Amino acid sequence: MTAFGRVFKLNGYTMKVGDEVDPPLSAMMVESFLHTGQLQDPADLGKPYKSNDNFSLDQASVFVAGRISEHAGVFAQATYSEVGGLLGWDNVDLRYARPFSHGDHGGVWGISLNNNPTVSDVFNSAPAWMFPYMSSDLAPGAPAAPILLDGIGGQSIGVTGYTQIDGAWYLEAGGYRSLSVAWTNKVNAGYDGKLSGVAPYARLTYTHAVPNGDFTLGGFLFDVQRGAVGEDANGRTIPLPGPTDDYNDVGLTGDYEYQRNDHIFTANALYVHERQTLNNTFLDGGSTHLRNTLDSFNLKGSYWYQNTYGVSLAQFVYDGSNDPALYGNNGSPNTQGGIVEFDYNPFGKSDSWKQPYVNVRVGLQYTWYTKFSGLVHNIDGAGRNASGNDATYLYLWLAI
Question: Which domains does the chain have, with CATH numbers?
Answer without folding.
Answer: 34-56+85-399 (2.40.160)
